Amino acid sequence: MDLKYKHVEAALVDVVGVKPKAIGAFRGRLRHLRKLGLPQLQASGSGKHLIYTQRQALEMLVAIQLEKLGHKPEGAVKLSLSIVRQSPFGQYESKDCYILPDPPSEDSDRYRMMFGANDVCEFLAFSPEVFTLVNISALIRKLNVALDRSLKLA
Fold first, then answer.
1. Tell me: the pLDDT tens digits for 68-113?
2. Which terminus of the chain has a smaller tally of CB atoms within 10 A, N or C?
3. What is d(CA 37, CA 60) in angstroms, rounded to the nearest whole number?
4. At what angle do helices 23-35 and 5-16 cross, to 10 degrees?
5. Strand order through the sheet with 111-115
6. d(Cα 91, Cα 144) in Å, to the nearest integer?
7. Is residue 49 classed exposed, middle or buried when 0-12, 13-18 and 19+ CB atoms within 10 A define those classes?
8. Superkingdom of this entry's organism (predicted)?
9. Other CB atoms closer than 10 Å to residue 70's CB: what's the count?
């Protein structure tokens, strides 16, 4: 699937639920992530469109979600790259992939990865009182639907 920036942006706007009047600010957030190295793209040369992968679109989506949870952009980029690199693209043995990132802080770059509801339930038995859980597999499903929709509209 050859994805141009316009496809990725449209899909992210869809998944994140950006309102039309907030698209300018959202584009600014995406530009800031790009300046921080997310996604990692090859130089395309003059006049050529950059091609994005689904994985790169997911890296951007995960970073945006982490920012919404209070992580600073630099930390969100670092976490996102690691999470997407380590997680399966979809499910693992028919189980959703869940991420439990450490609370936002200056040196917060750790997270726990779990697969399936049973792992999550086991964690809950011994978990702290407050935590954040991100279903990476659900994000992938939503992103894929939104990417398909953006390709059809193009």
1. 999 999 999 999 999 999 988 888 889 999 999 988 887 778 899 9
2. C
3. 10
4. 120
5. 111-115, 97-101, 134-135
6. 13
7. exposed
8. Bacteria
9. 14
Return the amino acid letter for 63.
Answer: A
pTM: 0.92
Q: Are 60 and 33 in contact (CB under 8 A)?
A: yes
Residue with more model confidence, 90 or 134 = 134
Handedness of CA 87, 51, 40, 16 (dihedral sign): negative
Rounded Cα–Cα distance for residues 89 and 87 (Å) = 6
Task: Identify any residues that bridge with 3 across adjacent strands, giving them in sequence order.
Answer: 52
Contact 75, 37 (CB under 8 A): no
Task: List, in sequence order, every beta strand (DSSP E) within 35-143.
Answer: 97-101, 111-115, 134-135
Which pair of structure tokens corresponds to residue 77?
């980029």
pLDDT value at residue 45: 66
For residue 75, the tally of other CB atoms under 10 A from its CB is: 21
CA distance linking residue 49 with residue 4, whole number of Å = 7
Q: Scanning the structure block, which residue is given the tokens 């399936």?
A: 116
Confirm if 52 and 39 have CB atoms less than 8 A apart: yes
